[in-house]
Amino acid sequence: MNGPPALPLIGHLYIMVKFTTTEAIFHNLRTIGDKYPSPICIHVGPLVHVFLFNPEELQIMLNSPNCLNKSLHYSFLRVDLGVFASPGHIWKGQRKLLNLSLGPAILNSSITMFNEKSAILVNQFEKYADGIEHNIYRDIAKCALDIIYYTALGLDFDMQRTDAGDYYLNLQDEFMDLIAKRMFSPSLYPEFIYQMTKSYKREQEMINEARQLTDRIMQERKVNERLSTEQFSNESVKTDIGRKKPMNFLDSLSKLAQYNEDLTREAILQQVDTIIFAGSDTTATTVSTFLLMLAIHPDVQEQVYQEVMQVCPDKTQSVTLEDISKLTYTEMACKETMRLFPAAPIIARVSNEDIKLDDRNTIPANSMIIGAIYQVQRDPKIWGPNAHLFNPDNFLPENAALRHPYAFIPFSAGIRNCMGTRYAWLVMKVVIVYLIRKYRFKTSLDMNSLNFKYSIIMKITNGCLVSLEKRDESVVGECGMK
Question: Which of 281, 288, 439, 477 could make an SS bond with 464 (beta carbons 3.0 to 4.6 A apart)?
Fold first, then answer.
């Protein structure tokens, strides 16, 4: 396959060892993607990595039943019993029931809580309306935590107005930085080597701290008692599925555990950890980056604001599911944000058998396959010569119809796609409505000054630095007049 020259035994390790930070390694891999066409083969010692950033190839890989297993790297997260990273044969048994926990019924019943938590965020932003630039990510992340704890677990910890939110985010950020560092350090892949490092010791300390909170959740919801006293048959679970009975994530886990001996208490802990991280950090990263894009592009911000005021003119008005469906330009701007700044810039699978891409290229069994989402979503051959620029018109229906459906996959795609896509869209749009109708966002940053780091989630190292200006109350009133 395509790619830079490989050396005997070490393969392409020489490319990685000369860089000392994950930012530099991630940048270098992107540069290789710009130089060579897909597929690219990178040998990390004896390990074969095949990078794909061609939509047709990504479609083949993501829809192959021989590509359901996640790569070795996912095991570093210590949640390989959870739906996010579990092996394919375990994942298949979990997915169907757990889908109910984020299905339309439970989400529709949670829309009131989305509004309440977004209103708190608006009030929290009051302290930033001082003309000074602030990094707004953490406030949005705490709001996202509030929402996911309630939606998935049925608990309200008020993360935005207590120290609990900062405590959790500090743990999460440090843990993700450690895991990203290990991902780009192949010498630390063997577990027995990694366990001799300070990073491993610190990692275990953080996992134990986080688990104390998870234990508290399980105690409050009396999960342990339910596991020992409730009896559900396989047939009763199938009946619930058929009726689409709404259950939150933790309820679904408790019921699934009654007839699935693989779903141990440890597995439930890992599932809870997975849903909290996956349901909060990706959403918070996308919303904060979206607001930064509006600050950099005031013309787009104005169009989003005008649409929001047509749909939800009163700043105290709750956002309904019907309102959300009308925010078409806002959704286009969100999609353009996710195109340029996908929260998950890469996805990785392992092939169980040979996978034929075309007449020239076949991926061997047991290869690690990297879907380079970042690369395909910025490819000038797909998105035109201005692919690096922010332009929501890329998602006008007539433009989207001309592209391959796998040219834009921020939520992954195929058989093992993201189960929380609809959840993410609802949360993002509700939060955006509340913030954009109250504040105008400005920034001194521009597109050329933005730098990135890969810490499982791709983030802007500059921070989402914006200044807030309260919008004219009289304008809101005029827009709200019939």
Answer: 288
Residues 408, 256: Cα–Cα separation, whole Å: 33
Using the 8-state DSSP alphabet, how is residue 36 labeled? S
Angle, helices 198-220 vs 265-296, to 10°: value is 100
Residues 154, 174: Cα–Cα separation, whole Å = 27
Q: Report the alpha-carbon distance of residue 394 to residue 333 in Å, rounded.
A: 9
pLDDT single digits (tens) 353-367: 999 999 999 999 999
Mean residue pLDDT across the chain: 86
Please report which confidence band the pLDDT of residue 79 belongs to, taking 50, 70 and 90 as the band edges: confident
| Rounded Cα–Cα distance for residues 336 and 350 (Å) | 29
pLDDT for the residue 279: 81
Angle, in degrees to the nearest 10, between helices 298-311 and 421-436: 100
Q: Kindly tell me if the per-residue pLDDT of 138 is higher than 80.
A: yes
Domains of the chain: residue spans and CATH: 13-479 (1.10.630.10)
By mean pLDDT, which of 74-83, 211-220, 395-404, 432-441 is the weakest?
211-220
Residue 129 identity (one-letter amino acid): A
In this prediction, residues 188-207 reach a mean pLDDT of 94
Burial 421-442 (b: 16+ CB within 10 A, else e): eebbbbbbbbbbbbbbbbbbbb
What is the CB neighbour count within 10 angstroms for residue 356?
11
Alpha helix segments (H runs only) across 80-162: 88-99, 104-124, 137-153
Rounded Cα gap, residues 213 and 210, in angstroms: 5
Q: What is the mean pLDDT of residues 180-189?
A: 86
Q: Are 355 and 62 in contact (CB under 8 A)?
A: no
C-alpha distances in angstroms, 152 versus 24, 166, 280, 319, 413?
Answer: 36, 20, 11, 20, 22
Query: What is the tally of helices (H) and strands (E) in the chain?
Result: 22, 12
CA distance 438 to 440: 7
HSE, CB side, 13 Å, CA atoms: give it for residue 64: 22
Q: How far apart are CA 260 and CA 90, in angstroms?
A: 10
